[in-house]
Amino acid sequence: MEEKINLFYTNDLHSNFEQWSKVVGFLKDVKAQKSAAHESCWIVDIGDHIDRVHPIAEAFMGKANVQLMNHAGYDLATIGNNEGITLAHDDLFHLYDEADFQVVCANLHSLDNKEPDWLKPTVTIQSVKGVKIGIIGLTAPFNAFYELLDWHISPQYEALDKYVEQLQQSTDIIILLSHLGINEDQEIARRFGAIDVIIGGHTHHLLRTGEYINNTLITAAGKHCAFVGEVILTWDHILNKLVKKEAYTKEITHLAKDLHTEQTLNEMQEKADQLLAKRVVVINNPIEVRWFKQTEVMQQLTNTLKKWTKSDIAMLNSGLLLDHLPAGEVTLKDIHRICPHPINPCVVELKGDELLEVVRASFTKEFMELKLKGFGFRGEVLGRMIFSGMEVKTSFHDSGEEFVQEVTLHGSPIQVERTYTLATADTFTFGRLLPEIAKSEVKRYFLPEFLRDLLAETLRTNFAGD
Predict the structure, then answer these.
(1) Which of 62, 139, 237, 453 has the highest CB neighbour count under 10 A?
(2) Biggest CA pair distance of the chain
(3) Which Pfam families match (predicted)?
């Protein structure tokens, strides 16, 4: 006798609610179908459901996302880095207090010696015919951020060594909910043959029908819930083993919306607008934003960053600000609208020659016009780099392309062997946008403040009306 066991999952929604009511409609339908067929079915999320780029997530500090998951009938979830490092400690500690689903993450630990009641390293679920399924959750180890918020992420292999062996003794099937990324998922599959399925996320990869490494099935459903993932496991009760594993992704962008969910989203948006209507400042004159030109607001924001971090130099890219501000009242909603990125201030140490290379690279056409996706950036293009504490003189080639002619600090040339502290957006500490910053051995992040918090201070200090 064979039994079908079904899991439907989402990953990396990032508070992009455009498809959410369609996701909910689809999940409700499939759960009803599986229930009518007397098949086991669970709904799972793999993290980064929350992203403070959206006013609803910002206003409710993620709790509205949890409410939406409750309404959709989720059974299990793990956390992503957007849940973990974009909320203050207490906000994360109480994020899932009202969750109707279980939260599983084996490598998240509170440094204040008190763990949230909702946090479980593993969970065991059971099919309608008695098959025991062990669930482990893991999240990406951004400890440079987590530890500033009094959390710690232990090594994923240490957690797997501990819990896989335990689950082997007590369950029939082992499933990993992994917010680690495709490369880590593949390596885990190589090392831990006892894990039957890895449902992944974080790197936004889409595996339409999954992939096998050894005996482990790996799957993931992209980002923003354009797809919902499905895992189908077939258990043979006579042979007493798992005989088939399948993974699929279903595109849901063309499906009908769940009207109750659409109404809930509209109500949440109205409430978020009310919560974010708090006045920050009144300005007498409009504030202009330009992505490829120096503006007063970007210069003053960069000056604020330098002063706030007590750094030698600061630099910020103009693409961080997305829109103008008209004269009059400026609210929290306005500031969130023009600076929605979950980006923190950061200070790195660079030698003078490295600093010069960063400056030169930032003035290339390719850099300024780069349509960056990810690393916290939620804008259109990076834009022109603005500096504070340092003078940058540029000129133009015959082709019209701008280049750096001279860089000075208080009128003196940059000393190539001297070490400077540079404040900037944490975006540049990741990837290969500006390799010298990413490779800096000294990085100091500032949490839980976002750059928009510094923007609010800049407006109050430099642009307030009478």
Answers:
(1) 139
(2) 82
(3) 5_nucleotid_C, Metallophos
Are 203 and 12 in contact, with CB atoms under 8 Å apart?
no
Cα 122 from Cα 136, distance rounded (Å): 5
For 264-333, the DSSP string reads HHHHHHHHHHHHTT-EEEEESS-B---SSS--HHHHHHHHHHHHHHT-SEEEEEGGG--S-B-SEEEEHH
Distance between CA atoms of residues 464 and 466, nearest Å:
7
Ordered domains of the chain (ranges, CATH): 2-271 (3.60.21.10), 279-462 (3.90.780.10)
For residue 154 the two structure tokens come to 């232990």
Phi, psi of 324 (to 5 degrees): -75, 165
To 5 degrees, how large is the angle CA 231–CA 233–CA 236? 175
User: Is the pLDDT assigned to residue 396 strictly greater than 90?
Assistant: no
DSSP state of 86: S
pLDDT of residue 465: 79
pLDDT in tens, 237-293: 999 999 999 999 999 999 999 999 999 999 999 999 999 999 999 999 999 999 999
The residues with which 233 forms a beta bridge, in sequence order, are 5, 245
Q: Which pLDDT value is given to residue 466? A: 63
Residue the block writes with tokens 């009803």: 32
Distances (CA, A) of 93 to 61, 90, 266, 417: 12, 5, 27, 44
